[in-house]
Amino acid sequence: MKPKVAFFSFTSCEGCQLMFLNLEDELLNLLGAVEIVKFREAMKEVTSDEYDVAFIEGSITTHSDIERIKSIREKTKILVAFGACATIGGINAIKNFQPLEDVRKYVYGERWDFYDTVPTMQVDQVVKVDAAIHGCPVSKKEMLEVITSLLLGKTPNIPDYPVCVECKLAENVCVFDKGMMCLGPVTRAGCGALCPSYGNKCIGCRGLITDPNTNAQKDLLEEKGLSVAEVLKEFRMFDGLSEVSK
Amino acid sequence: MLPKIIKKDDLRAFVEALLAENVVVAPTKKGIKYAFAEVDSFDEVALDYNITMLSPRKYFYPQNETVLKFKLGEKPSAEAVVESAPKIIFGMHPCDVAATWLLDVVFAEDPADPNYLSKRKKAVIIGMNCAKPCDEFSFCKDMKSYNATAGFDLMLTDLGDKYFVEVGTEAGEALLVAGAQASEASADDLKALQEWQNGKEKSFVNRIPYDTKFLPEILGASDDSLVWEAIARKCLSCGSCNTTCPTCYCFTVRDEVASNLVDGERKRIWDSCQLDEFAEVAGGENFRKARSARLRHRFNRKGKWLLERYGKSGCVGCGRCDRNCLVKISSVEVYTQLAGERAK
Ligand code: SF4
Ligand code: SF4
Ligand code: SF4
Ligand code: SF4
Ligand code: SF4
Fold first, then answer.
1. What is the pTM of this model?
2. Pocket-testing residue among B95, B207, B321, ligand 3, by greatest number of atoms within 8 A of Cβ
3. What are the structural domains, with CATH classification, of chain A?
4. Is the ipTM of this complex over 0.90?
């Protein structure tokens, strides 16, 4: 029997599901190895209520999200947090730094009190997560690494070292040398240092490594001229749920 | 082998002759920095470069190299991959030549590394001598690598209107004879080289306040030094001091399987002892968890252990570690402070 795979979307832009559809050549191979039973962006009907692997895209931001993710957890053997919204809260966590009432008024206008909201949570704050695919959006390479590893029953290789490693291996000019700031030294690699390779700073979309020296990173940014508030703003873009943004 | 002379104006013709027959890599401009890259014309060569971001070790020991191809499934199989192609590395500075010389010894040690050695054997190194230190970070004079004594096929020194060419190997000599209008160096040329060397001795300064032959002894007595804790507080564990170091040779191994779940490749990828996971072993135990222990390990490798094991310094003083450290952890300062602590 082919493993049953389902994709669920929570608060997100659904860009990570799109990345999955963009796998193109590999997609055909994978479709031979698994049966996709739910995928909102690509198919209409739901074909099963039990899953071997559930990919969860998006953050948990409402009471009904909490109930829904709990019920998915009960129905799936493996649950994969899929993309930054799911793994670290990502952009959605920016609202946690404002009063929730203001946020609801801003988003829903007059009928704001009709709409429920809770502070943004990453998926593993609510249910157990078995594997994470990082990034905003997820990278093709890492998606394949996780999916093939799950199918082969091996632990996926997810880097737990900073973006600087991949950046140096690519022999990029460090953006600090060009007078810019970068979160690469504390951010989890795996994207191939995508942004610095194109001359931009890393804004931390893959989240922090397990043991970042965030104090040293904050000192570094301050030494380069950022105020304490500006340093926090850099981190809150993606790492809003982490200690570093408090 | 006797030294030769080529006229300044003939360098272009020499490089063009090399280009006609060979793959040539040379220092090139990359943004506001320099990088070794394959060149198609003499004009792409940045002759006056100070230092490249990575050393040419990437040509013998690539950042990410396939070492095995395998198949899973019904009929599993595996085949070692050893790829190499002839190359001329033009314009290597003395520190990088010295670093390559060390790597040659390391990778030839039993069990010899076919991936490195096959690439290295097919490479010709044409060095370019430095008249002045690349910037304030170099400490090649302290590490005694600012003059290349061996490890090159040819070594060029710019004497103004001509290049003095030291010939290290027959392969180098053959290239020179085939591609350049080279003449024998005269007594006057040797004198000019000596004068140039005198000037060089003045422009390079020692930055470590003692002879680095004492480094192993000093490091040996510094296991409990407070310096390690002090620099650990600022260290980002970003690994840049290793990934840019021309003498680092640690790698990690990853197996990647294609989406057909049959074809796979084993990759070896540059690693760094400053990274959290580096010393983690099966079962999750990490025997160098503390940043301070990782830093102490790095400095001991560079200043003590490699020298004791291979008879060549593990550091050539190129300064890339210090130059690339965003939080200004400096090898020169560390070595200076360790000795200072002991003197107290
Ligand atoms: S550009 Fe960013 S990621 Fe790259 S080396 Fe510099 S700090 Fe690290
Ligand atoms: S460089 Fe940073 S911001 Fe860019 S993709 Fe990688 S982790 Fe995300
Ligand atoms: S470190 Fe010394 S030998 Fe190396 S490039 Fe700079 S000046 Fe030349
Ligand atoms: S480059 Fe500096 S901050 Fe990065 S690991 Fe090395 S010593 Fe630490
Ligand atoms: S330890 Fe630093 S100075 Fe020494 S060879 Fe490595 S990068 Fe160059």
1. 0.96
2. B95
3. 4-151 (3.40.50.700), 163-245 (no CATH)
4. yes
